[in-house]
Amino acid sequence: MKQILLITDGCSNVGLSPVVAAAHASSEGIAVNVVGVLDHGDVGELGATEIDEIARAGGGLSRLVNMRQLSQTVQMMTRKTVVQTIQLAVQKELKQVLGNGAIEALPPDKRGEVVRVIDELGETSGLQVALLIDASASMKPKLAAVEEAIRDLMLSLQARQGKSEIAVFHFPGTKHGDDCVMDLNWTTHLNGVQAIFPKLQMGGTTPTGPAIMHVIDFYRRGDYGRQSRDETDGMMSGYVV
């Protein structure tokens, strides 16, 4: 299962709409979660709307949080999206088997079995999370909170039974650019994540849409999604009759 987890505090202002980019991600089986990080101010109505629309288009979740809540939120959203992805696959198969995609339509004993298997698959399925960090100037005071959140997310993923990997990107790559930089390729090790932050140069515009497209291209360039949504489909066939 593939995810993009976008951590930002404001509106995009360069390039392709991030909502359009998130829709591209969803069409390729990549869920897009968005965390809007607040400090003493507010992201504003426009920023909050954009954050919600990006997540909706990307088939993911969105939250506005203060810095103290960030670590807990990224863990919750990552795990919840895993379960959501599996539930969608199960609903699809139920519709094929029973003509009704609702788990609630099953008899109580079958319903309990389906829920148990969903929970089990949520812990054992392979997971890849591409962290996409807004490194524009306004995020600089929040960098320590982002670092802590990523470290805690790594620890949480390491506790899963299934293989979990993280890649890290930031944008913009330069103060006047609209590019996105990969800081860390797929890893399961904490030490790589900790080495990123002292080197980050904060500042510049907020090219969120192009950055999302860059991460989509990163997924495309290799066999990173070995367990696709189609492969998830069919897992329930032994449980639903």
UniProtKB/TrEMBL annotation:
Signal peptide: none annotated. InterPro entries: VWF_A (IPR002035), vWFA_dom_sf (IPR036465). Gene3D superfamilies: von Willebrand factor, type A domain. Residues 1-86 form the VWFA domain. PROSITE patterns: VWFA. This is VWFA domain-containing protein. The lineage of its organism: Bacteria, Bacillati, Bacillota, Bacilli, Bacillales.
